[in-house]
Structure formats: structure tokens, C-alpha cells
Amino acid sequence: MKAYFCGWYYRFQSDTHTLALIPSYHKSGTGNFSMIQLITDTDAYAVSFPFSDFTKHGDTVCIGENTFSPRGISLDLSAPGLDATAHLTFGENARLRYDIMGPFRLVPFMECRHSVFSMRHTVTGTVTVNGVEYRFDDGVGYTEGDRGRSFPRVYAWTQSSFPEGSLMLSVAEIPLGKLRFTGIIGFVFLGGREYRIATYLGAKAEKIGDGELVVRQGCYRLTVRRLTQVGHLLRAPREGAMTRTIREHPACPVYYRFERDDTVLFEKTDERAAMEYEIPDTPAPAEPC
To answer: The pTM is what?
Structure first.
């Protein structure tokens, strides 16, 4: 059986709280199933479903009685340790000009392919998790997705929404046949304008490590620096199955700086950014004897 996974990542936040929902389905040598993961500021939950509970009609995904679409989410989850409901309505999605993968979307046998469905949209409604209600009154949302066999072995990803727009950056080790290279995809959505950052546009990594990413593309440079190392344990795909454990920081402080030549277009420490950092830190130099 060919290993495969497909997942959607819905992130939404208010001034005081952040939540994310990840519906997915999986095919692997150990069996087929679907799953919903729920992430709050303080906890992470995973609920498995039979593969037959997953359906997709156009841009709407359903797992059991739970519905996810570009227009909103309806959730009714009950499992050991978790009772969660959601009724959320999304505003108009801000879409990319073209696929975030660019020409790489046509390359066969890639380990993982990424999508961005909405750079930014409004979120209205409520989510209740184990009796705690989270209200979103004109909150802000972001939606993306992944599909393929496995998450990259080594990668970093971050997403931030702010009053002027939003951004996403992913830097990963990409296997392609016998070769491996550093792949970069991302965008800065600022003042209604999309700045695309990608390997296929000439983006190069100036620094990867020690919690920092520095990417240059022509006259543009984007710097990302994590300011914490604590995160929730989250399940991630390996050969279709959810057997890998990663750490996601759903709402943590991250520093961003976006420059064009010597002009700073955007600089901010977002106290509620999202980040996954699966890159080994550079070991400290050995002290002389």
C-alpha cells in the first residue's frame, strides 16, 4: 500500500487566546484512519476516527459530524479527556496569487507538498474545550495544508498574524532522489501586498540554527528568531502514519524583521506567533582542557 497523508491546518486567534484544528487522513502499512488534532494555548489533543468517517466534497472536509471549510468550522468532539464544540464563521479568505510550491508542484515523488489556502481572514464564533469557552469576535484566522508521505526530517515553520497582514516561512531539508537541498517557501502579506519568498525565486538561507532563520532573496531579507523553546507535543506523519512526535508552539514570542535593502518594511516581536522548530541546535564549542 502506498503511504500517504493529507491534512489541513486551521489557526485562529483573538487578543487573548489562540487555537488550531488539524483534520487529516492517513494511509500506511499499519492501517488507514482519519484524525482531528486540537491545540490550545495550554494543551494538545488527538482524536482518531475510522478512515470511512472522512469525506471531502469540493473544498469542504468532514470527519464524522465535524465539518471544515473556507467558510467556517462546526465541531462536536467527544473522547476520553476531551469534550469540544465549535461554531466558527470565516470572512473572505485572502488567497495567494499562485500556488506556494510554484514549479515544484509539478515535481513527482516529493516527500511533502505544502498549500496555503488563506493568508488571513476574520473569525467569528465560539469554541468550548472541556467547559472553557473561547470567544472570537472579529478574530483573525489562517489556513494551510500538507500532503505526501512524511514531514521533512529537518525543518522549521512559523506563522504570524498581525494588524497589517500576516506571514509564513518554512525552511526544510528536501530529499529529491539521491540529493538533498534546503527548500524555502513563504510569504509576507503586508498592507494588502504579497511578498513571495521561495527557493524557485532565488531565496537562499543565510543562517539556519540556534533558533534563528535568516533568508535572503535579492534585495529582501527576512529574519525570524524564536524566543522560547517550550512547546506542545503534536503528532506528525512518517510514511503516512502519525508515528512521529514534534513540538509546536501555538502562541509564543517570535521576533520578525523584513527588510528591503537598508529599509525595514516590518519589524515586530509577536507574542502569539506559531512555530515548529525541528532543527538540531548547533552544539557549543568544546572548552579547552
So the answer is: 0.93
